[in-house]
Design brief:
Elements: E1 2-6, E2 27-28, E3 31-32, H1 33-43, E4 48-53, H2 57-66, E5 75-80, H3 87-93, H4 95-98, E6 104-108, E7 111-115, H5 117-127, E8 131-137, E9 145-149, E10 155-160, E11 169-177, H6 192-202, E12 206-209, E13 213-217, H7 221-230
Parallel strand pairs: 1-4, 1-6, 4-5, 8-12
Antiparallel strand pairs: 2-3, 6-11, 7-13, 8-11, 9-10, 9-11
C-alpha cells in the first residue's frame, strides 16, 4: 500500500519551541517524527511513501539520509511545493501516483501516532466506502475535527473545530481511502478537514474507525511537551 505523509506545513504555532526546524524533524525519544512514522509504516506493510515538502525542505532531505530512513525498505518519493497546496490539494496534485491503487493511506507527519494500521485497513475494506477515518476520543472537541457517527459507524457529519461539538470523536488525521476521494476535492488550495471530509460525509462515503491507539498532535508547544512525556509509555 502507498501512503502520503504530509510534511510541508510552516509550523508557525511551534515557533516558540523551534523556529528553525521543520515539524517532521522534531525529536521524540532522540529520533525525528519521520523516523517514527517510517517504523510504523514498515510494521504494517506500507511499500511507498510520498512526502510533500515546502518549509525548510533541504533539512527534510538531509534528515531522510542522516536517519537512514531508506533502510526501512520503503520507496520514498519527494514532492516539493513552491506554493502550499493544502492537505487535500497535495493529494489531488499527485493523483496519478495512486489512481491505480485500490486503497492508499494519508497521514500528517506532525502527529505522533501508534496504532494498528492493518486493523484500520481491514475495517475500511469491510465498510466498502470511499474513506475511513481513524477516530479517538478528545477532551477538547472544539479544537479538533469532530465526527458524528451512526450505529453502523458511518460519519453523518464532520465539522472542523465546531463551536458546539455534537461528539467527542475527533479525527486522528489518518485516513484509508480510495481514488474515489478525488471527486470530493475542490480545485486549487484545499484542506481535507474543511473541504473534503464534510463532502464525503454528506453523501455517506465517510466512515469512522475507533480501534485503540495513541495519537498526539504536535501543532503547538503544549502538544510537543505532552508527546515527549508520554511516548516512553506508548512505544
Amino acid at each position: 500500500m502507498k501512503a502520503f505523509l504530509l510534511a510541508a506545513g510552516l509550523g508557525t504555532r511551534l515557533y516558540s519551541v523551534s523556529k528553525n526546524i521543520p515539524k517532521c524533524l522534531m525529536l521524540i525519544d532522540g529520533k525525528p517524527m519521520l523516523y517514527h512514522w517510517f517504523k510504523l509504516f514498515a510494521d504494517h506493510g506500507i511499500t511507498d511513501v510520498l512526502i510533500n515538502l515546502h518549509y525548510l525542505y533541504e533539512q527534510v532531505i538531509s534528515g531522510i539520509e542522516n536517519y537512514k530512513l531508506k533502510d526501512f525498505g520503503i520507496n520514498i518519493v519527494l514532492f516539493y511545493e513552491t506554493v502550499l497546496l493544502g492537505t487535500a490539494g497535495t493529494i489531488s496534485e499527485n493523483k496519478s501516483w495512486v489512481d491505480k491503487e485500490d486503497n492508499f493511506l494519508i497521514a500528517y507527519a506532525d502527529n505522533l501516532t501508534k496504532v494498528d494500521i492493518t486493523r484500520i485497513v481491514e475495517q475500511h475494506i469491510l465498510n466498502r466506502c470511499t474513506t475511513t477515518l481513524w477516530l479517538y476520543r478528545t477532551e477538547v472537541p472544539e479544537k479538533c475535527g469532530i465526527a458524528t457517527l451512526d450505529a453502523s459507524g458511518k460519519i453523518t457529519e464532520f465539522v472542523e473545530k465546531p463551536e458546539h461539538p455534537r461528539s467527542e470523536y475527533a479525527s486522528a488525521a489518518l485516513y484509508i481511502t480510495t481514488p474515489g476521494i478525488f471527486k470530493y476535492i475542490p480545485p486549487g488550495f484545499a484542506d481535507l478537514g474543511k473541504d473534503t471530509l464534510p463532502r464525503l460525509s454528506a453523501v455517506g462515503e465517510l466512515y469512522g474507525c475507533t480501534v485503540p491507539g495513541y495519537n498526539r498532535g504536535m501543532g503547538d508547544p503544549d502538544g510537543y511537551e505532552k508527546a515527549q512525556r508520554e511516548w516512553n509509555d506508548v512505544k
